[in-house]
Write a structure and sequence with these properties.
alpha+beta; elongated; HU Protein, Chain A; 3 helices; two-stranded antiparallel sheet; 3-stranded antiparallel β-sheet; 39% helix
Length: 93
């Protein structure tokens, strides 16, 4: 499913205009992204938790030359799905 398909499904089930649905989805994604990059967790009950994790620096290898290189530490976004998200017998929201 892509963004347009998601917008269409939400529009059809809620009868909210597609432009409004698009704006809400866009702002929701922006808010989640901004919170995660600020180091916060975003918990959506029955869906999951967005967060961030720090990866330490490590030694890697240049594939072309075989030379050892240092890969710097960085922070990466994470997502942990809720039990309801993973369940095949999920309850309607």
């Amino acid at each position: 499913m892509n963004r347009r398909e998601l917008i269409k499904i939400v529009h059809e089930t809620t009868e909210v205009p597609t432009l409004a649905v698009d704006c809400v989805i866009c702002e929701m994604m922006n808010a989640i992204r901004d919170a995660v990059y600020a180091g916060e967790e975003v918990r959506l009950v029955r869906f999951g938790t967005f967060g961030s994790k720090k990866r330490p620096a490590r030694t890697g290898r240049n594939i072309r030359t075989g030379e050892k290189i240092t890969i710097p530490a960085k922070t990466v976004p994470t997502f942990k799905p809720a039990k309801d998200f993973l369940s095949k017998n999920r309850n309607p929201v």
